[in-house]
User: Fold these one by one.
Assistant:
Number 1:
Amino acid sequence: MLLTWNYSLETGIRQIDQQHRKLIELINELEIAHENGRNAEALKNVLPRLTAYAQFHFKTEERLMEHLTSSTHKAHHISEHRKFAKEVILIETVDCVEPTKTVVRLLDYLKSWLVNHIMKTDKELAGYILTRGRRIVDKQHS
């Protein structure tokens, strides 16, 4: 089932929300390729773009955290990003012989991880930025 962007996923930080939408588009592209039986192609073409974009997105969030969040939140948030990258590589490596199985496992993981990460960790970051750091964020993007 394709992911759908909705109001509940909004963090209130425009740049982050736009990047989350793009991540959802890429996950959906992987899903569509799977539904059309193009699993090997999806692993070769879609997954590298998705993982590269995820790394770009993580760097964006981590830049926002440099001056804004507590060290506890920052460490936890960055740890989640690193675990995500390791898990994607692990799934790719373990199931690399069977593209269909790999794509199914990746989709299950990606969908669950992204929604949970947005709803908890990213919203916590956004809350901090919106209540305490708006001026700093605005200056970074001016």
Note: The radius of gyration is 16 Å.
Number 2:
Amino acid sequence: MVFATTPLYALPVAVIYLVLWFRVSSLRSATGVSFGDGGDARLLQRMRQHGNCAEWSAFVLILMMLAEGMGTPAIWLHASGALLLIGRIAHPFGLLPGNAGHPLRYVGNGTNLLAALNAMVCIGIHILGL
């Protein structure tokens, strides 16, 4: 099986993941904290931005690969992929200390949830033979 659609989103999401990793790594170097956050709020924030990206990206991309492998039409994969990408771009800017209700945090979480649900429905349709 050759995947044609999912990689179009996996690549930019991987770039975002690496940028977020670099931000954590560079701040670790600057602060001398090799494990945990060392009580540094900026490091904790960057760690959660990176961690959230890892958690959601892997989950949604796996669902997309399964859906694509089952023959889901590309338009539905593009819907999940675009939502994932929007969420991965928005979320780090909305994950701020002292502001749990930042609009970009809601955009990030909401679009990723919709991306996952869309892919899950696509998989369910194939499982049920609809």
Note: The chain has one domain: 6-128.
